[in-house]
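Re: weekly structure request thread

Next one in the queue (275 aa):
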Amino acid sequence: MAFSVNTNAGAFAALQNLNKTSNSLQTVQSRINTGEKVSSAKDDAATFAIAQKLRGDVAGLNAVKSSLDRASSTVDVAIAAGEAVSDLLVELKEKAVAAKDSGLDTASRTSLNNDFTQLRSQITSIVQNAEFNGTNVVNSGGSSVVAITNDTGTNVISIAAQDLSVSGTNVTLTSSQSIGTSTAAGSVVTAIESSIANVNDALSALGSGAKRIELQRGFVDKLSDSIEVGIGNLVDADLAKESANLQALQVKQQLGLQALSIANQAPSTVLGLFR
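Done, posted below.
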């Protein structure tokens, strides 16, 4: 190899190796700082694109969770109202059966009828106030409960409304019926028994819907967690490995600096030729 003060091939090689080490060190430090081996498209374009798609899926599932939680709360309110209506119907039956006794005096019958009227009015009050987030499932003309189930919002769970209002589809007891006479009380007992059976069926439908929402919510949680683990497998850095690489590269960088320093001193040996 010719001696030259204009071209220092050894220094060039040492500098290239040092730059390569510095770039590797910068990459390792970035992975340690972010905890990710793929934090931008320039790190690995294909993996980054896949991870971003999966992150979009997780974001969609977060919206699904909110929708299911809202639906669950709405149905829970409806079930609470339905159970209260069922209990009131049982009390109304007790009053109506008692009023069938033809031997009752006028005062006792009037008292029973007053209690009956108040309990029937309480059904109306409960049904009208069984609302959550603007949705009433048990009132006359009530709205069905709808919740999205997938990250694109194309699939839904729908739970039909159940009319539990007086004189409605399920509670056949009318707002004008009374137990003022033994005969009237007999008709009321028949209506109440039918109403109790209908309300129990309605509660069964609401309870089944609530269970389905609960199962779907659990599935979405597991699905979201699985996708997030998958994203981590794609982009997360192995910090134990990166720590070891950091130590090695730091030593390599120091050695590279020393090699460059030695290479830079090479031209000075030419002076020995002229002594």
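The first helix runs from residue 9 to 34. The beta strands are 131-132, 135-136, 145-148, 156-159.
Next request, please.
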